[in-house]
C-alpha cells in the first residue's frame, strides 16, 4: 500500500473511531433509560437531532485534522525521505536531502547527507585511483608497443591457444615476405591480433617447444627457452626462439604457470644461402687445390730425375705452368666471390644511402655548425654500413677541414658503381697534401667534444671499403671519396604501414590473454568478444548471375571490440570483362586502374585466409555474399563462417525507421562518414557502425551471435528478396 | 715378369707423371681416362694394381672399386685409391668398399712408389 493510501486509511480510521465512540455512547445511554424517561426525552431530543449530528461531525472533523497531521509526520515524511535517499543511492550520488518535517526527521536527513558526502568522496578517490592505474597501464603498454616497433627483431606474443596478442612491425614485414598471398593483405593474411600462429608454424612444432620449456621450468632452469629452425610454406628458413610468458602467481614459491609464449623470429634464408655458397667455394678451393698440388708435386718430383730426356722435361714443365695458372685463376675467382661474404663480418646495417647522407648533414651542421649542401644523391642506392662509426668519421673529416683549412661549407654526393657505393665529401678550395690526409686517417678521431679510439682507417676497414682524396681541378675543389658496400634496395613498406593510421597501429591486445577457446560454439559467444571481418565490395554491376564481377574488396578486422584499421585488406581485382561508365561514376574505379591487377582466382584465396576464424560483417551482406558464393564451384573456396548484416541489425534496433541505408544509419549513430564508395572506406564505416550497434543490441537483450542471427532473421528486411 | 699397373685418372697432368714414374720403376703401365674405361681395362688387361682416382667422369672411383670387388675373377687386383677428398669420412668409405690403400692428394711420389711396392709384396 502506498504511503498516501496508508495516510488516508489512518484518517478514515480516526474518523470511524470518533463516530463509533459517539454512537456507542448515545446507544448505551438510550438503552439505559426507562420507558417513561424515553418518552419524556424524545420530544426534547428529536427537534435537536441536527445539532447532535453537527456536534458529531465536528468531532469527526477534528479527529481527521489531528490524524492527518500526525500521519503526515509519521508516514508521509519518512516515505519522502526514503525516496530521496533512494535517489542518492541509485541514480545521483551528488543529490542531497532537504531536511524537513519533524526535528527527528531533520536529524535523520542531516545524518544521511553526511553519509552521502563521505560516500561521494570515497567514490571519487577510488575513481581517481582507477584512472591513475589505467593511465599507467596504458602508458606502459604504449611504451612497450613503441619499444617493440623499434626492435630490429621480429617479435610475436601468443596465448596458449596460439592466438597472436602482440606483434611488431618487423614481424609484420617478415610475415608479409613469407606469405604467398598477393600483397593486398599486407601480411595480414598471416599475422593479425587474435589470429592463429599455427597458420605459419606447425602446431606440433610449437607444442613440442612448449613442452621442452615446461620441462626446463620444472628443472628450474635459469633460461627456460627453446630454439628451433623451421621452413615455412613459402620455403623460407626461420630461426625461432621461444620464451614463455609466465603468469604472476599469487604465492612467491608457487610453480610459475605458463600463460603464453613469445616468439623471436629470424629469417635466416639469406644467411643460410650465403653460408651454403661460402661452403661450396671453400670446397672447390680445397679440393681443386689438392689435385692441382698433387699434379704439381708429382711433376716437380719427376723433374728431379737426372735421366730425363728433353722432351719429357718440357712436358713436366708444361704441367707445372698449367697448374700454376689454373690455381691462380681459381684463387682469383674465390677471392672475388668471397669479397661479399667477408664484408658481413662486422655487423653492418642496410640502409638507404639518402638517409645516411641526411644523417651526415644533420650531424655536421649540429655538431660543427658547418653549413652543408647536397649534390647528386642517388635515391636508389642502398648501403651496408655501421652508421654510427661512419657518421663519426664523416663528421671528423669535416671538422678537420673546417678547423685547419677554413672550409666554410661541405657538400655530399652519392652514386653507385658496380658492387660499391661512392660517398663523396666535397669542398671548395685548396687540396691538402697526401701526408696531411694520411695523418688525418691514422689519428684516433676526436672532434667537437667527441672522441673515439677508432681511426678513419679502422672505420673504412670495418666496411671493407676504401677512402682517398681526389681533386677536381677545373672547379677548384676536392673531395674525399668513400667506397662502401652496396646493399640490395629494400621495399619501403614500413612508412606506408605507419601512415595508415594516424596513431600508433593497433599491434597489441593483451585482453586476448584471457581468451580461451574451450570449445565454445560461436553462437553462444558474446558479440563483444568475437573477432569479425567487416568487408565491402565494389562490383561491375548488380547481377552476379548475369556476369557482373567484383572489382574491389576492402576489409578490416574487429577484435575484442576494437576496430583494427592497420590490419586491413584492400585489393583491386581484374574482372576480366569490361567496366561500364555508369559504374565508374559510383565507385570511381576506371578500367586503367584494373589493368595488371590480380584476378579473383588469386584474390579470393587471400581474402578467405584474411577472414579465417572470424564472423563476416557487411552492410546488405546478402549482396556481397552472392558475389562470393557464385565463385564457390570454380575456386573451391567456401565462406562457411557466420555472416551478420548491419542493415538487418539496424532494422532490429530501430524497427520504426524507414531508411536503413548506410548513410542514414551513420547519421543516427553519429558515425562520421569519410572515404565512402571505396570498398575499404565503406568497410571501415560499416565496422564503426557495427561496433556502436553492439551495446544497443545488448539493451534489447541481444548479446550472443546466436541472438543476433535469430533477431536478424525475424526482421521484415530479411524476408525481402534481394 | 713385370707387374702391370693401370692408372685411372681423367687429369692428364697427373697421368703423365704417374706413367713416367711407374715405367721408371719397371712396371708395365696402361692408362684409363674415366671410370668406365678403367673398369673395361681391369677386365681386359688384368692389371696387378689400379691407381684409382675418385673424381672421374662416367663412373667415379667408388663405383669402379665396388664393381671390381663384386667380380670373383678380379679378386687379385690390388686397388690404391687416390683422391683430393681428404676428409676422414671419405677415407673410411674407400677402405670399407674394398680399396687396399688410400692416398690423399697431394702425395709424395716416393711414398706412392713405396706403397705400390708394398701392396704388390715387392721389396722396396
Topology:
The complex is a heterodimer of chains A (722) and B (124).
Chain A: H1 3-32, H2 35-45, H3 49-90, H4 103-150, E1 154-159, E2 164-167, H5 169-178, H6 203-218, E3 226-231, E4 237-247, E5 257-267, H7 269-303, H8 310-343, E6 349-352, H9 353-368, E7 372-377, E8 382-385, H10 387-405, E9 410-417, E10 420-428, H11 434-442, E11 444-447, E12 450-455, H12 456-462, E13 466-472, E14 477-487, H13 493-500, E15 532-539, E16 550-559, E17 562-572, H14 581-587, H15 591-594, H16 600-610, E18 615-618, H17 621-629, H18 632-635, E19 643-645, H19 646-653, H20 662-669, H21 679-699, H22 705-714, H23 716-719
Parallel strand pairs in A: 7-9, 15-18, 18-19
Antiparallel strand pairs in A: 1-2, 1-5, 3-4, 4-5, 6-8, 8-14, 9-10, 10-14, 11-12, 13-14, 15-16, 16-17
Helix pairs in contact in A: 1-3, 3-4, 7-8, 9-10, 19-21, 19-22, 20-21
Chain B: E1 4-8, H1 12-24, E2 28-32, H2 35-45, E3 49-53, H3 61-70, E4 78-83, H4 88-96, E5 101-104, H5 109-119
Parallel strand pairs in B: 1-2, 1-3, 3-4, 4-5
Q: What are the key terms here?
A:
heterodimer; A: 722 residues; alpha+beta; Beta-Lactamase; 5 domains; seven-stranded mixed sheet; five-stranded antiparallel sheet; 19 strands; elongated; B: alpha/beta; Rossmann fold; 5 strands
Structure description:
- The complex is a heterodimer of chains A (722) and B (124).
- Chain A has 722 residues and is α+β, with helices and mostly antiparallel strands.
- Chain A has 23 helices and 19 strands.
- In chain A, strands 6, 7, 8, 9, 10, 13 and 14 form a seven-stranded mixed β-sheet that branches. In chain A, strands 2-1-5-4-3 form a five-stranded antiparallel β-sheet.
- In chain A, α20 crosses α21 (679-699).
- Chain B is 44% helix and 20% strand.
- Chain B is built from five helices and five strands, in the order βαβαβαβαβα.
- In chain B, strands 2-1-3-4-5 form a five-stranded parallel β-sheet, sandwiched between helices.
- In chain B, α1 links the parallel β1 (4-8) and β2.
- In chain B, α2 (35-45) runs parallel beside α3.
- The model of chain B has no long low-confidence stretch (mean pLDDT 87).
- The interface between A and B is medium-sized, with 21 and 21 residues.
Amino acid at each position: 500500500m502506498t504511503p498516501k493510501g496508508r495516510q488516508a486509511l489512518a484518517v478514515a480510521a480516526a474518523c470511524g473511531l470518533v463516530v463509533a465512540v459517539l454512537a456507542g455512547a448515545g446507544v448505551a445511554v438510550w438503552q439505559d433509560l426507562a420507558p417513561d424517561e424515553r418518552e419524556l426525552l424524545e420530544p426534547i431530543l428529536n427537534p435537536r437531532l441536527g445539532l447532535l449530528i453537527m456536534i458529531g461531525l465536528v468531532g469527526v472533523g477534528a479527529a481527521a485534522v489531528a490524524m492527518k497531521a500526525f500521519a503526515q509526520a509519521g508516514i508521509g515524511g519518512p516515505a519522502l525521505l526514503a525516496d530521496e535517499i533512494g535517489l542518492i543511492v541509485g541514480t545521483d550520488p551528488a543529490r542531497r536531502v532537504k531536511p524537513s518535517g519533524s526535528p527527528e526527521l531533520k536529524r535523520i536527513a542531516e545524518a544521511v547527507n553526511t553519509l552521502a558526502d563521505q560516500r561521494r568522496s570515497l567514490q571519487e578517490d577510488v575513481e581517481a585511483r582507477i584512472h591513475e592505474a589505467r593511465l599507467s597501464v596504458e602508458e606502459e603498454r604504449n611504451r612497450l608497443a613503441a619499444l617493440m616497433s623499434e626492435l630490429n627483431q621480429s617479435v610475436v606474443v601468443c596465448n596458449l591457444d596460439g592466438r597472436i596478442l602482440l606483434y611488431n612491425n618487423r614481424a609484420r614485414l617478415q610475415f608479409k615476405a613469407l606469405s604467398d598471398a598477393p600483397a593486398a593483405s599486407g601480411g595480414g593474411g598471416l599475422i593479425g591480433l587474435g589470429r592463429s600462429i599455427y597458420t605459419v608454424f606447425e602446431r606440433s612444432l610449437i607444442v613440442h617447444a612448449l613442452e621442452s620449456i615446461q620441462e626446463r621450468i620444472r628443472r628450474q632452469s635459469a633460461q627456460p627457452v627453446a630454439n628451433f629452425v623451421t621452413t615455412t610454406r613459402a620455403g623460407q628458413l626461420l630461426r625461432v626462439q621461444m620464451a614463455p610468458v609466465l603468469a604472476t602467481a599469487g604465492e612467491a614459491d608457487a610453480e610459475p604457470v605458463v600463460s603464453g609464449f613469445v616468439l623471436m623470429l629470424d629469417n635466416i634464408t639469406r644467411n643460410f644461402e650465403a653460408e651454403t655458397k661460402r661452403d661450396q667455394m671453400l670446397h672447390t678451393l680445397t679440393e681443386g687445390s689438392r689435385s692441382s698440388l698433387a699434379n704439381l708435386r708429382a711433376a716437380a718430383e719427376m723433374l728431379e730425375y737426372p735421366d730425363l730426356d728433353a722432351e719429357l722435361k718440357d712436358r713436366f714443365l708444361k704441367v707445372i705452368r698449367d697448374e700454376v695458372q689454373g690455381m691462380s685463376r681459381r684463387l682469383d675467382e674465390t677471392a672475388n666471390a668471397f669479397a661479399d661474404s667477408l664484408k658481413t663480418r662486422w655487423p653492418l646495417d642496410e640502409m638507404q644511402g639518402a638517409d645516411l647522407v641526411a644523417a651526415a648533414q644533420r650531424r655536421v651542421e649540429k655538431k660543427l655548425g658547418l653549413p652543408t649542401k647536397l649534390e647528386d644523391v642517388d635515391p636508389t642506392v642502398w648501403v651496408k654500413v655501421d652508421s654510427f662509426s661512419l657518421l663519426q668519421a664523416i663528421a671528423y673529416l669535416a671538422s678537420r677541414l673546417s678547423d685547419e683549412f677554413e672550409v666554410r661549407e661541405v657538400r655530399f654526393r652519392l652514386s653507385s658503381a658496380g658492387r660499391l657505393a661512392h660517398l663523396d665529401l666535397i669542398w671548395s678550395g685548396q687540396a691538402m697534401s697526401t701526408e696531411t690526409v694520411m695523418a688525418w686517417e691514422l689519428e684516433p678521431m676526436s672532434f667537437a667534444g667527441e672522441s673515439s679510439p677508432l681511426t678513419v682507417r679502422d672505420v673504412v676497414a670495418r666496411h671493407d671499403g676504401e677512402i682517398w682524396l681526389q681533386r677536381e681541378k677545373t672547379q677548384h675543389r676536392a673531395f674525399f671519396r668513400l667506397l662502401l658496400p652496396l646493399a640490395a634496395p629494400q621495399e619501403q613498406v614500413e612508412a606506408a604501414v605507419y601512415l595508415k593510421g594516424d596513431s600508433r597501429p593497433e599491434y597489441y591486445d593483451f585482453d586476448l590473454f584471457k581468451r580461451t577457446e574451450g570449445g565454445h560454439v560461436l553462437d553462444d559467444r558474446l558479440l563483444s568478444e568475437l573477432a569479425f571481418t567487416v568487408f565491402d565490395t565494389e562490383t561491375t554491376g548488380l547481377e552476379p548471375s548475369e556476369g557482373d564481377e567484383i572489382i574491389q574488396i576492402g576489409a578490416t578486422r574487429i577484435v575484442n571490440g576494437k576496430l583494427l584499421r592497420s590490419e586491413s585488406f584492400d585489393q583491386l581485382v581484374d574482372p576480366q570483362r569490361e567496366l561500364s561508365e555508369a559504374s565508374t561514376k559510383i565507385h570511381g574505379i576506371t578500367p586503367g586502374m584494373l589493368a595488371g591487377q590480380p584476378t579473383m582466382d588469386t584474390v579470393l584465396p587471400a581474402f578467405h585466409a584474411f577472414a579465417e576464424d572470424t564472423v563476416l560483417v557487411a552492410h546488405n551482406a546478402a549482396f556481397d555474399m552472392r558475389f562470393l558464393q557464385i565463385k564457390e564451384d570454380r575456386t573451391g573456396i567456401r565462406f562457411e563462417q557466420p555472416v551478420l548484416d548491419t542493415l538487418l541489425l539496424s532494422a532490429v534496433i530501430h524497427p520504426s525507421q524507414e531508411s536503413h541505408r548506410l548513410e542514414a544509419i551513420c547519421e543516427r549513430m553519429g558515425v562520421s562518414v569519410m572515404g565512402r564508395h571505396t570498398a575499404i572506406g565503406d568497410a571501415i564505416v560499416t565496422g564503426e557502425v557495427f561496433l556502436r550497434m553492439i551495446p544497443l543490441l545488448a539493451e534489447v537483450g541481444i548479446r550472443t551471435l546466436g541472438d543476433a542471427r535469430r533477431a536478424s532473421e525475424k526482421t521484415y528486411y530479411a524476408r525481402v528478396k534481394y | 715378369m713385370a707387374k702391370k699397373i693401370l692408372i685411372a685418372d681423367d687429369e692428364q697432368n697427373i697421368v703423365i707423371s704417374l706413367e713416367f714414374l711407374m715405367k721408371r720403376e719397371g712396371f708395365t703401365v696402361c692408362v684409363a681416362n674415366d671410370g668406365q674405361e678403367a673398369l673395361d681395362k681391369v677386365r681386359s688387361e688384368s692389371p696387378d694394381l689400379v691407381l684409382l682416382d675418385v673424381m672421374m667422369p662416367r663412373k667415379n672411383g667408388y663405383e669402379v672399386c665396388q664393381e671390381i670387388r663384386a667380380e670373383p675373377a678380379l679378386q687379385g687386383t690390388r686397388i690404391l685409391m687416390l683422391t683430393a677428398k681428404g676428409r676422414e669420412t671419405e677415407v673410411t668409405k674407400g677402405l670399407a668398399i674394398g680399396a687396399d690403400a688410400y692416398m690423399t692428394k697431394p702425395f709424395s711420389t716416393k711414398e706412392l712408389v713405396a706403397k705400390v711396392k708394398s701392396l704388390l709384396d715387392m721389396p722396396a
